[in-house]
Automatic annotation (TrEMBL), chains A, B:
Transmembrane segments: none annotated. Residues 46-65 bind DNA. This is TetR/AcrR family transcriptional regulator. Keywords: DNA-binding, Transcription, Transcription regulation. It comes from Dyella lutea. Residues 1-23 are annotated as: Disordered. Residues 23-83 form the HTH tetR-type domain. The keyword Transcription applies.
Length: 225, 225
DNA sequence: GTTTAAATTAATCATTGAATTAATTTAAGG
DNA sequence: CCTTAAATTAATTCAATGATTAATTTAAAC
C-alpha cells in the first residue's frame, strides 16, 4: 500500500529528457490529434485533451508544432493528403463503365478507412460541411481535381450512352460520397442504435454497389401500376 | 459627419425595455442560434456571436434560456423535432414499393430543407457524426422509431419479392440519408467549388430517384463483357 | 569527463467564453 | 399619476483554453 504522505502518482514521468527512446512522440501526437479532432470537431478539441491522450503535457504540442493551427496543417499535410491523393489519381483512369468507376471509388474509400479509421468523420465534419475548418485548405490541395476528374468521366460515359437516363454526371460525386464515406463516418451509430452488428465496410460496399448497379426494385415489380 | 468626441455608435440600443414591440426576440434568438450552430458546430458557436447576430447582448440568452445547454434543448424541442416527427410518421405508411418509400423520404427531406435550410448541416454535424452533441438527445426522441420503421418496411418489401437482390434492408436508411440529407448539408460546396449553379433540391431529388430506380448503367451496357 | 543539445514538465499569462448580477428604461395596470 | 413588472444593457466573475517560458533531466558529442 502506498504511504499516505507521498501521493506518488503511479507512472508519472519525471521532468527532463526521457531515458527510453520515445522518438515517435510526434507521430503519437498526430494520431491523438486525429482521433480527437474527428470525435468532437477541431474547434472543440482542446490541446490539453490531445496531449493527455498521448500521455504528455500540452507544452509538447507547442514544442513539436508551434500552435494549434500548425498542428492541424501538419495533420492534413502528413496524414490526410498522402492518403487521399492516390485515390484521386487512381480515379482518373480506373474502370471503364460508370459502375466500374463507382466500384473503384468505393474500394478506394474502403482502403482509406482501413488505415485511417478516423478519416470519414473528420472529412464529413470539417471538409464537407459548411463552415468546416479544413474546407478551404483541402479544396485548394486535392479537391480542385477530384470532382472535376470524376465529373468528366461520368460525362464521357453519358456521351457514350453508358449512363442511365435521369442521372446527372455532376451529382454523381455527391452521391458516391454520400453512399460510401458518409455512412462510414457514422458507422457506430448505424451499428449500435439500429441493432445491426454486421455493418462493416465489406457489407456496406456490396450493398452500395448493388444499389448503384440496378437500383432497389426488382425488374418484375418496377412500375407495376 | 459625426463629431470626433462622440463615437455614437449608429443604431445602438439604449438600456431598458424597448419601445417597439419586440415580442419575437426569443424566436429570433432561436433562429440565430440555429444558423450559427449549423455553420460552425454547437461547441464552436459562442453565445456572443449568436447574440450579436440577433442584435442583442449575450445576457438576453441567459434571460430567455438560462444557459447554453437549455438553448440547445429549446432549439431541438421547438424547431428540430416538430419538423422531423411528421416525416417519421409519414414514412410508416407512405408508398407501397421500395421506390415509393424512398421517394416519400426524399420528398420529406426536401420539404424540411425548404423551411429550415440550416437543418441538414446541423443534423449531419451533431446527430450523425460520432461525438455529435445532439446524438443522445435526438436518438432518444425520434430515432428509436425512424430507422426501425424504415427497416421494417424494406424488410417487408424484400419478403414480398419487391427488393432487388444484394440490397440490405437495414442499410437503406444510411443510403437514403447519404443520398438526400447529406448532399443538402454541403450544397454550397458542390455548387461553388464544382462550378454547378444548377444544384438545387429538385435537381438533386430527380437525380437521386433515378439512381434508386434503376442504378446508373443503361440496360444495354450492363454486364457488357 | 565536460560540454552542449534535446526533450520534457511545471508554472504562468493572456484571452475568451459562459454565466451572473445590478442598474436602467419602458410598458402596463391600478 | 403611481406602482409594479418586463426587457434590456453594462459590468463582473469564474473557468477553460491556447500559448509561452524557465527549469530540469538525459542523451550525445567531443
Amino acid at each position: 500500500m502506498p504511504s499516505r504522505t507521498t501521493p506518488a502518482k503511479p507512472r508519472r514521468r519525471r521532468v527532463g529528457r526521457p531515458a527510453g527512446d520515445d522518438g515517435d512522440l510526434r507521430d503519437r501526437l498526430l494520431d491523438a490529434a486525429a482521433v480527437q479532432f474527428a470525435a468532437t470537431g477541431i474547434a472543440a478539441a482542446s490541446l490539453r485533451t490531445i496531449a493527455q491522450a498521448a500521455g504528455v503535457t500540452p507544452a509538447m504540442l507547442h514544442y513539436y508544432f508551434g500552435n494549434k493551427d500548425a498542428l492541424v496543417r501538419a495533420l492534413v499535410g502528413e496524414r490526410l493528403l498522402p492518403n487521399v491523393r492516390p485515390l484521386v489519381e487512381t480515379l482518373a483512369s480506373a474502370g471503364e463503365t460508370p459502375l466500374e468507376v463507382a466500384q473503384a471509388f468505393a474500394q478506394g474509400v474502403s482502403a482509406i478507412v482501413a488505415t485511417l479509421p478516423w478519416l470519414p468523420a473528420l472529412w464529413v465534419r470539417e471538409v464537407l460541411c459548411e463552415g468546416g475548418a479544413l474546407r478551404e485548405f483541402v479544396f485548394r490541395e486535392v479537391m480542385p481535381s477530384l470532382p472535376q476528374v470524376l465529373t468528366r468521366r461520368f460525362e464521357a460515359a453519358r456521351a457514350a450512352g453508358q449512363l442511365a437516363p435521369g442521372i446527372d454526371p455532376r451529382l454523381m460525386v455527391a452521391s458516391l460520397v454520400g453512399l460510401t464515406l458518409f455512412p462510414a463516418a457514422g458507422a457506430p451509430i448505424w451499428q449500435k442504435a439500429f441493432g445491426m452488428p454486421g455493418l462493416d465496410m465489406p457489407a456496406l460496399m456490396s450493398h452500395t454497389l448493388a444499389l448503384l448497379g440496378h437500383g432497389l426494385a426488382t425488374p418484375s415489380t418496377e412500375k407495376p401500376r
